[in-house]
Amino acid sequence: MSSTLFTGISELHTVSERGVINNGAVIIQDGTIQWVGPAAEAPAADQEIDCGGRAVLPGWVDSHTHMIFAGDRSQEFAARMAGEDYAAGGIAVTMNATREAGEHALTELLKQRIRDAHAGGTTTIETKTGYGLDTQSEALAARIAAAHVDDVTFLGAHLVPPGADPDTYLDEVCGPMLDAVAPHAQWIDVFCERGAFNEEQSRRVLRAGQARGLKPRVHGNQLGEGSGVQLAVELGAASVDHVNYINAEDIEALASSNTVATVLPACDLSTRQPLAPARTLIDAGVHLAIASNLNPGTSYTSSMNFCVGTAVLQMHLSLEEAIRAGTSGGARALERHDTGNGLDPHRRPAKGTLVEGAAADLHILCSAHAIDLAYRPGMPMTHQTYRAGRRVA
Ligand code: NIG
């Protein structure tokens, strides 16, 4: 395949030890990055694309979404804005709509959500099941997701469906449901929270998934202090997500582990929870990721531009820290981060970084300066998106 040289890059955010290269250039070929450096030193390529003086970042790595759903919960959101608290029970509303929607409608909804994500500079997407909550519906969600996104997470333990007995439901989740979903998924997740699943139940679910070859990740410490963080660290989870209510021991446990803390700024705003302490986590040496948490209950947006900008504005991250969390941080949460040679731990092209050997996932901003992600909130930010060298938006 022919090589392509991208020039006219005001700021090239490599998200690597090479930092930001002013007046940079990138050469891609066969879906990976072949060369990165100052434009003045760029070797020749078969064709050239002039980015017109814009900033270029790695594509966003959105490591936490719930994209397989149907239905609407705008009234629930409106009630929350009028003072109601968020409660896990709303998941059942989406469960009913999702079960009724059928394969074709769910597939079309997912495809549109992926197009929206690409249009906002996202190039890598994890998504979860968790709105089917019976074996047939969870397996369908996983199968649809596996055909369209990078990583699929089994979240049968999102909520005990209304009317079901918790122990009987968990027997199903850890038995026939897991059997049906596992062939389509890489990850096992649990909503370890008041109103959803307690520590013991969560451990059971995660261990069952691990026994089937799925790797753990956890929804934890979203609505109050709890055992999600400690459980995630204990089981070697790749990530624990939300982390709004964490204490000193949780931070210490994360800092001495490989578990990523994934913060979800849009969700925090939409649920009016205190923002996750991203600044404190970084200062303590914890690996941080930022994700959108697209879902109809707590975060109805896939805009990583918004999430990263909000992390700068409201979570007190520097621009570089926030970009890193939305790119290589997300990649680490999915075990797609660069291990030093442009490859991830499984020897695939790494995501979330612009180094030789990594995936040719480029996000060309509308602006010359990436700080505009925070400086110009709500303005169009994505000019073009390339995934594995192919333009997707
Ligand atoms: O990550 N917290 C659990 N799951 C979703 C919300 C699900 C819903 O309310 O529909 C989340 O915020």
What does this protein structure show overall?
Helix 3 links the parallel strand 6 (122-128) and strand 7. By secondary structure, the protein is of the alpha/beta class. The strands form two sheets. Strands 5, 6, 7, 8, 9, 10, 11, 12 and 13 form a nine-stranded parallel beta sheet that branches. Strands 3-2-1-4-14-15-16 form a seven-stranded mixed beta sheet, with no helix packed on it. Helix 2 (91-119) runs parallel beside helix 3 (135-146). It contains twelve helices and 16 strands. The structure holds N-(iminomethyl)-L-glutamic acid (NIG). The site of N-(iminomethyl)-L-glutamic acid (NIG) has 13 residues, from helix 2.
Write the layout of secondary structure elements.
Blueprint (H helix, E strand, L loop, with lengths): L3 E10 L6 E10 L2 E7 L8 E12 L1 E3 L11 H8 L9 H29 L2 E7 L6 H12 L4 E7 L8 H16 L5 E6 L6 H13 L3 E2 L1 E3 L7 H7 L4 E4 L5 H8 L4 E4 L1 H7 L6 H6 L4 E3 L13 H11 L4 H15 L28 E4 L6 H4 L6 E6 L2 E2 L2
Bound molecules: N-(iminomethyl)-L-glutamic acid.
InterPro entries: Amidohydro_3 (IPR013108), HutI (IPR005920), Metal-dep_hydrolase_composite (IPR011059), Metal_Hydrolase (IPR032466)
Subcellular location: Cytoplasm
Organism: Corynebacterium argentoratense DSM 44202
